[in-house]
Amino acid sequence: MQTKGQTAAKIIGIILVLLLVAGLVAIIYKFTNGFNEDFKTFYVEYGGKQILAADSQLSLTAGKTHRFDVKYTFDTPQSDIKEYSVEIVPNAQHDFDFTVDGERHLYSEQDDLSAAFGLKKSDTYFELSVTEEFSLEYALQSCYPGKEVVIPEEATESNACPYMLVVSSYNGNVVYHIALSVGAEVTGVELDPTQIIFTGSPEQGGK
User: Fold this and answer.
1) pTM
2) Could you list the residue ranges that cross the membrane (predicted)?
3) Which of 39, 77, 119, 152 has the fewest Cβ atoms within 10 angstroms?
4) Beta strands 64-72 and 125-130: pairing type?
5) 3-class secondary structure for the chain?
6) Distance separating the N- and C-terminal Cα atoms of the chain
């Protein structure tokens, strides 16, 4: 016959096991995006928040440098540094033609827009430096220095997030596609009886 102490110990043991199982389930839930994706052994952090969904959206403020940390789930401070890859490419929800010195080009066929974002890559993080004058035309101009780039007015209107940040683990098994938009920082709000006016302007389109 079990004593009260043995019974209490057994109950405590069961509770601890249940807590351990619950903790493991919570971790798996978190790193599988709610059991909807494979377990993430590699992830990105921005602004103190983890990006764990394979596809997501993010708005960057112009005139600022944005830091993204890259981490491997099971790494420790003693682990060897693992490689990763990062690039920014067009995200043409609605593709469009633009001209370079009068010659037509297709936005979706542009290879790399990373230079427009001042991409700087380090071992465990990377930074994007977005200038105050950033626009879709500015981004394309970085691909054709010294040439005249003209985009249609509707290009920005039809593409809310025209850039795609692609971050991949060292072996390519985990890839994040983060659709980017760029806008001015809201520095204040002016109240008016008939309207609310936000100081700062959104991303500008082409000519």
Assistant:
1) 0.72
2) 12-31
3) 77
4) antiparallel
5) CCCHHHHHHHHHHHHHHHHHHHHHHHHHHHHCCCCCCCCCCEEEEECCEEECCCEEEEEEECCEEEEEEEEECCCCCCCCCCCEEEEEEECCCCCCEEEECCEEEEHHHCCCCHHHHCCEECCCEEEEEECCCCEHHHHHHCCCCCCCEECCCHHHHCCCCCEEEEEEECCCCCEEEEEEEEECCCCEEEECCCCEEEECCCCECCC
6) 87
